[in-house]
Amino acid sequence: MGRFEEMEPDLYDVPVMALRGISVFPRMILNFDVERPASLAAIDVAGAHGRKVFLVAQRDILKEYPGRRDLYTVGTVCYIRQFIKSQNGGMRVMVEGRERGALLNLYTDREYLRGDVGTMESTSHNRDAVRMEAMTRQLLDLYDSYTSLSGDSVPEAIISLGVKSDPGYVADYVAQNTHLKHEQKQKVLELTDIAKRMQYLSSCLSREIAVTSIEHELNDKLRERMADLQRENILREQLRMIRGELGEDLDGGAESEEYCERIMALKLDKEIEAKLLKEADRLSKQPFGSAEGALLRGYLDMCLELPWNKTTKERINIDQARKILDEDHFGLEKVKERIIEFLAVKQLAPDMKGTILCFVGPPGVGKTSVAMSIARAVNRKLVRMSLGGVHDEAEIRGHRKTYIGAMPGRIMAAINQAGTKNPLLLMDEIDKLGKDFRGDPSSALLEVFDTEQNSTFRDHYLEVPFDISDVLFITTANTTQTIPRPLLDRMEVIELPSYTDEEKLAIAKNYLVPKQRKKHGLTGRTLRIGDEAIREIIACYTKESGVRQLEREIGAVCRKVAVDIAEGKAKSVSVKSRDLEKLLGVRRFKRDTVDLQDQVGVVKGLAWTAVGGEILEAEAIALDGTGKLELTGNLGDVMKESAHAGLSYIRSRTERLGIDREFYKDKDIHVHFPEGAIPKDGPSAGITMTVAMISALTGRPVRRDIAMTGEITLTGRIMAIGGLKEKTMAALRAGIHTVIIPAENERDLEEIDQTVRRGLNFVTTSHIDNILDLVLGDMPAQKEQSEKSEPEKVELVVEQGKDDDRSAVIRQ
């Protein structure tokens, strides 16, 4: 309140109406429309009680229901001269300002605002009448200049003001009838000192005159330019008519002019505009039907179709994005969280560039669909581009337009297809890029993914720079092993793991079955598939890390049921596990089960493939011979070297293992991996082959419920391996109880799915000696003796070894 705190109200309980963007001055008449319910009620009350109303401006014109803090203190006490109600429920009001007033109290307890108002008298501390008259004349001169420039000049109004002897009235009239900001008008209203009011108003008018003068200058220049363009167009039209009279060909010139107009309308950078205008000029000089003319037309059409200045308004809402991801995908919590982090950073830093996401995982786990969900969440156009099998650099950068059949590269073609310069560009199968004598497309992608360069990306066909820095690039791959290192460094890898059987069951129930039912015209009443039937399909009809084949099999079930319902054989079908052979045929895969008994020389290893984890059995036998090591099963060089390293370790530990020291002279060892048609390689089977050879040489059987993975060295150390997540999922599916992993991979256990961690016992080791007694059973003679004695309880524990290694031991 400030200086109004000590004022006493002159008017009590007077209706108050808040104004938006306008002010009313004393002794001025103003018309305005009223629509807000509180304002309409205030007018009605004032009309019934003396027609007095206090009008005060609100600070924020967007505020629909203003309170005390939203209103200025100083307003105008007005008399309502006329009000007319309109058909839409509003009202047209004419008011006459009477005097300035200060809002001392505001009451909001009724449907309209009311308050106590103290009136304010205008004063003049400057008693010099001559000076006051000079200030009045200056203000009138400024007002005359202002109205002349703005086109609102009314000479009669200026003359009538000149004869007024009241400077306060002159100042209020000028303030009411000029286009000042409402904050400036409010300040004029608050100034009760007439001299200060006129000084402030003169300064405001001086600035408005200066701004209006500059606007007029700019408009004059624009009109001159438009006149020149019009003159040029008239001359061109006359030239065209003259050429027509002379019988010259007009199509080329008219076509070229059309291209020029379209180029100029795009308002491109000078370099690009000059290049395209040059090509349009060349087109005008080409004879009718020439090959060069056709080439230039194709080039110009392509350039003009590109979205040089078109963008899609990006919408980033974290809650909405999370909802979309949850709707479209089950599980993948860490993947979703990383995507939410990415979108959150985009929301806080919209101009951030440089993050290229790469989704890596087996087929069918949802890499492409996650990218589609991101596009939907951020409201960007999605364009999908497959890179599988691309082996020509021109596929990325385009061909020179001088070649026959030349076209832009896939990047520019995708942007043109999207129709916007900021789409989400999904580049599938980036790990399957080829390379031959025509160039390396992965090297061309380095510029595309480099934010320091891609703002001026030059396609060979276009020959002009195009800004692709606003494109959101997302790539997918099954593995990072085949992606060139420089290209991989430009991308942030997000791994999508394989699904467990329970996750597949949930996905099938919540997503796949409803989707396939709808696709085949079925409903939940006409087709029901039980949980056991879905589990049977997962175990016996599919063998994958994702759910793509599972969806196909569910689709096959829907088709069979649709036939029965269409033929009238059934009205509804409930599919049980026993019905699957009739619907899908014989089971393609056997359920992975643990062998019935332990076997000598047979060890279960764990392998990683592009489609997920697998159980890899190693078989070894020892035969009389000359000391040869035979390795079969389509093994790679790395795997063969691991077998030789394991054999050398066995020879160095013959005494501890209970093996004849001369075995390598008279024993041949044959190591075989079944499914010989499938190539196998990698060092992680080293521990598996070594244990198989030890079992074959000692005759001790290997426990059937244990699987293992790890690289072995000549001294028996077990080194870290990759793909642990997928390998452990394969072990769980196969019914394995215990998995032996390298100690260095213990940190990776945090990344493994909770279902897998609950279903398996993990034993970590840094040396093969620590797990031999756990893995190998007794020799046949020892076994017979132990069966005769009373059985003792054997407990598997994992304890801290002396060398700070997680070692497995047997405690009797």
Concise summary:
This protein is an alpha/beta fold.
Q: Could you explain how this protein is built, in words?
A:
- This protein is of the alpha/beta class.
- It is 42% helix and 19% strand.
- The radius of gyration is 43 Å and the shape is elongated.
- 33% of the residues are buried.
- Residues 781-812 have low confidence and may be disordered.
Topology:
Elements: E1 11-19, E2 29-34, H1 37-48, E3 52-57, E4 74-85, E5 91-107, E6 113-120, H2 129-150, H3 155-162, H4 167-176, H5 182-190, H6 194-245, H7 251-266, H8 270-284, H9 291-305, H10 318-328, H11 333-348, E7 357-360, H12 367-378, E8 382-386, H13 394-397, H14 410-418, E9 424-428, H15 441-449, E10 457-458, E11 465-466, E12 472-477, H16 485-489, E13 492-495, H17 501-519, E14 527-529, H18 531-540, H19 548-566, E15 573-575, H20 580-584, E16 599-600, E17 602-609, E18 612-624, E19 629-632, H21 637-652, H22 654-657, H23 663-666, E20 667-672, H24 686-698, E21 701-702, E22 706-708, E23 711-712, E24 718-719, H25 724-733, E25 738-742, H26 754-759, E26 761-765, H27 772-775, H28 780-788, E27 795-800, E28 806-811
Parallel strand pairs: 1-3, 7-12, 7-13, 8-9, 9-12, 14-15, 17-22, 19-20, 22-25, 25-26
Antiparallel strand pairs: 1-6, 2-5, 3-4, 4-5, 5-6, 10-11, 16-21, 17-18, 18-20, 23-24, 27-28
